[in-house]
Amino acid sequence: MPELKEIASGLRFPEGPVAMPDGSVIVVEIEAGRITRCWGKGKTETVATPGGGPNGLALGPDGMLYLCNNGGFEYLETQGLLIPHGAAKSWSGGSIQRIDPDRGTVETLYTHAGEVQLRGPNDIVFDDAGGFWFTDHGKTFQRSRDVVGIFYARADGSHIEEAAFPMENPNGIGLSPDGKRLYVAETYTAKLWYFDVTAPGKLDRGESLTGTGAHFVYGAGGYSWFDSLGVEASGNVCVATIGNGGISVVAPDGRLVEFVETGDPFTTNICWGGADLRTAYITLSGTGRLVSTEWARPGLALHNLNR
Questions:
Q1: Rounded to an integer, what distance in angstroms lies between the CA atom of residue 4 and that of residue 53?
Q2: What is the pLDDT of residues 53-91, one digit of tens each?
Q3: Which Pfam families does the record cross-reference, listed alphabetically (predicted)?
Q4: pTM of the entire predicted model
């Protein structure tokens, strides 16, 4: 296990880390319904309180934070872990929201794509055209689970479309360094897929056994589920892996480069910061911590910040 430096603790199921230009890291606390800035040495401050279930988070080209709000979970606390457990009793749908990180204002951009209700938006990535892709993980109920897909939207709230359907509870999403591949990790199948991107918001829907045009990259065996993901500058895909507790680093050709253990069975996300993008920030959601570690390879600079 690598040396992990604790940035913040006592967080209520943190996810969606965003390394900010000022050196802080902003995360969501899904169970608490809030967005939190972490300065290190345990210092934190509330950025906004959107409620529901704030999940994936990204910094947009306008300096605003864009949030996937899944609408909320119920939770179990057992064995020293906080564990999501089905849709919140108050759940009525999911949304995409825009948050001003300075003022803390929250604006809802999307709740539907046409007639399709957003069920549980989960992870988000901007492209170099200024739009963003996001997954809808759906919701799990006592005897049913949503069938959901992948969406593309404009940051100004003017357009949203469903780009791929159906998928099995898609979670992590990210773009290759050249922007020509869209990677998607499914949670319960523990499979990583890619789509060929043909234009902003458009995927090659060619023939495949999946019916969506997705190409298989990698599947985890054993006691594993996939959560969110990040992409290295090299093109490797780093998938947060639940169960075994760590980061599965997968090459574009499907080889497992390495598995980085973290010690938390609910390891949920990774991003990179620092001048050389060699500092990895990882959310350990079960134990409520944000940690950092020196990464073997640099992370990929965000597409929308290179515009």
A1: 27
A2: 999 999 999 999 999 999 999 999 999 999 999 999 999
A3: SGL
A4: 0.96
